[in-house]
Amino acid sequence: MALLKRGLAGEPVKILQAKLGVTADGQFGPATETALKAYQTQHGLAADGIAGPDTFTALGLPELVLLTVGTKGEAVKKLQTALGIPADGAFGPATAKAVKEFQEKNGLDADGMAGPDTLAKIPAFAGVFSPEAVAKSQAAPGTISTDAKPAEAGATAAPKKSIWQTITSFFS
Question: Where in this chain does the record put each Peptidoglycan binding-like domain (predicted)?
Answer without folding.
Answer: 22-59, 83-122
